């Protein structure tokens, strides 16, 4: 059982999110009006001052709807700012993000497990390095780049996306619901640099965000499949009455329930104060490995149980399959996370 301070509000938040997303892909102004960017921002800065647990509810509903938005990248950017000590520059950025006038996007390595900064901060203050497949970087008004300084210590650099020495190039993907970009810094000058001991927490947050999204889309595909097999008739009766179909749906449900337990535990670990010393990486790896792999398996089975129509463009199952497959590879593959977990046990 999860002990969350605002858990009683989750059902209302979930209901509002489903109603909003049912109309299609909302633009960022609509999400701002709903208060999603400011969920974790302090009330004094214009936010709701809740926790990552509530942000995860929104992320799950975005996955359930396979919605296109900048929520993933901006959520990571806001998380990076929240992990910093209070200060004029940081507070102004959080306030602008809560208002929707600023889209801060965190630039981290989405191809590796754990905090693996792909950028270095030179002794003259210039930033060098590159990261590929960064979510929502092309839409950002502020880039928060995870890097290491000359001593090897993690730092967070605040850059203007339009600044000199910085290149942002969109990456085409089969999944049209995600917008990824390659970010390259060649002598870029940060507006601000902070020591950032919470680098591991930030990358764990990214992995868990993807796991939550995968859980939502898997549940959506199970619900769609159960509805379909109840109305599709063969040999004079619904195909859902056939034992093989029942077993397949039951297997999907079991996988999703296990994923739910792992994801809930990981969300709680990330929701803890980044300065508390709690390491969320183990829970994050378990959730990321299992939930993303489960989502691919569930959507694949959903396509099979939909029969011929499941392979058509009109069914929409392909949208979820592409998103689930991309989720599986982002922030470390399931195999990479399992290797990290196995190394801890040796």
Automatic annotation (TrEMBL):
<feature type="domain" description="Acyl-CoA dehydrogenase/oxidase N-terminal">
    <location>
        <begin position="15"/>
        <end position="100"/>
    </location>
</feature>
<dbReference type="Pfam" id="PF02771">
    <property type="entry name" value="Acyl-CoA_dh_N"/>
</dbReference>
<dbReference type="InterPro" id="IPR013786">
    <property type="entry name" value="AcylCoA_DH/ox_N"/>
</dbReference>
<dbReference type="GO" id="GO:0003995">
    <property type="term" value="F:acyl-CoA dehydrogenase activity"/>
</dbReference>
<dbReference type="InterPro" id="IPR009100">
    <property type="entry name" value="AcylCoA_DH/oxidase_NM_dom_sf"/>
</dbReference>
<keyword id="KW-0274">FAD</keyword>
<keyword id="KW-0285">Flavoprotein</keyword>
<feature type="domain" description="Acyl-CoA dehydrogenase/oxidase C-terminal">
    <location>
        <begin position="203"/>
        <end position="345"/>
    </location>
</feature>
<dbReference type="InterPro" id="IPR036250">
    <property type="entry name" value="AcylCo_DH-like_C"/>
</dbReference>
<keyword id="KW-0560">Oxidoreductase</keyword>
<protein>
    <submittedName>
        <fullName>Acyl-CoA dehydrogenase</fullName>
    </submittedName>
</protein>
<comment type="similarity">
    <text>Belongs to the acyl-CoA dehydrogenase family.</text>
</comment>
<dbReference type="GO" id="GO:0050660">
    <property type="term" value="F:flavin adenine dinucleotide binding"/>
</dbReference>
<dbReference type="Pfam" id="PF00441">
    <property type="entry name" value="Acyl-CoA_dh_1"/>
</dbReference>
<dbReference type="InterPro" id="IPR009075">
    <property type="entry name" value="AcylCo_DH/oxidase_C"/>
</dbReference>
<dbReference type="InterPro" id="IPR037069">
    <property type="entry name" value="AcylCoA_DH/ox_N_sf"/>
</dbReference>
